[in-house]
Amino acid sequence: xxxxxxxxxxxxxxxxxxxxxxxxxxxxxxxxxxxxxxxxxxxxxxxxxxxxxxxxxxxxxxxxxxxxxxxx
Length: 72
Known about the structure:
By secondary structure, the chain is mainly alpha-helical. It is built from 3 helices and no strands.
């Protein structure tokens, strides 16, 4: 996720607790969605769609933080 911000992500993961929380939530949702899509975890299409939307919301929030941190 966001390879152009790799160094900044590493920095924020060691200095910003809110960023760490968002990042961990996103990664956990990503893994859960992958398991649901591969049918390892039981789910419905609606549940998968809901989790994908939440994952995208978190990704947008992470991107906003990265852009703001990169500017100053």
